[in-house]
Amino acid sequence: MPETMRITPREGYFGVSRSAPGSRHGPRMKQGIQFLAMLSGSLKIEVEGETRHLLPGNMALLLPQRPANFRFDAQQESRYSWCQIDFDDISPGLHLYLNSLAPQLPVDPQMEQMMELGVSITGSRHINNHRVLIELTQTLLHYYSALGALEEEARPRAMPRGLRQACRYISTHYQQPLALEDIAQHAHCSVNHLINLFKHYLNTTPARYLRQVRINQSEVLLKHTQQSVNKIAEQCGFISPFHFSRVFKAAHALSPRQFRDRFRG
């Protein structure tokens, strides 16, 4: 992270907006930066003679002092979530850093969760949410930067909202037994369509994706806690300690205990 990125934003906030078919807005020019994540419909953003086409599952970054004109989908209503980050001062170093970021990236489940959390916290009135929102906007900015730093082939593909919902449901419910029907219900699609989505966009199956999430979480617990292997198996949703050890060893060629011992030296 560049030294200049230690500068704290003055304010950060989130929202969700709708635009009628064929709507046009602009020129938009603000002092801060704005993230725009398309939920439905589409948007053409014209900035300094260049046109970006933003489709659902993608996020655009709008930079300070750059006039932008918006042209929304002519056939249907467009919905998008946004995050505004304002600074007291944008130094030359910060300006250079912001200009080095990708103008547009696919939205992955983590980015989607941050945007949804930001919208929820922005609307919260039972706490002083100012500091929380500043921290969250900074986290989103750094995450976007890290994602953009990946080689293009290593970046996640833009995924349909149903697939992102399925991934999110798995990531928050992996500790319990999950049937394909449960995941499909939360993705608002049929089981067959769910399987096709995972195969087409992630080159895997829902069951394999779930297994990998459980393995990833078990690695964290093995490395950073003193919990027993049996307890970790239970915490991560495996049927039994034996099943956990078998699946883990197939993935790492090490048993959970061997993995923990090797990590701790």
Automatic annotation (TrEMBL):
It comes from the Bacteria. Gene3D superfamilies: Homeodomain-like, Jelly Rolls. Residues 164-262 form the HTH araC/xylS-type domain. The keyword DNA-binding applies. This is HTH araC/xylS-type domain-containing protein. GO terms for molecular function: DNA-binding transcription factor activity; sequence-specific DNA binding. Keywords: DNA-binding, Transcription, Transcription regulation. Signal peptide: none annotated. PANTHER family: ARAC-FAMILY TRANSCRIPTIONAL REGULATOR (PTHR43280), HTH-TYPE TRANSCRIPTIONAL REGULATOR EXSA (PTHR43280:SF2). It comes from Chimaeribacter californicus.
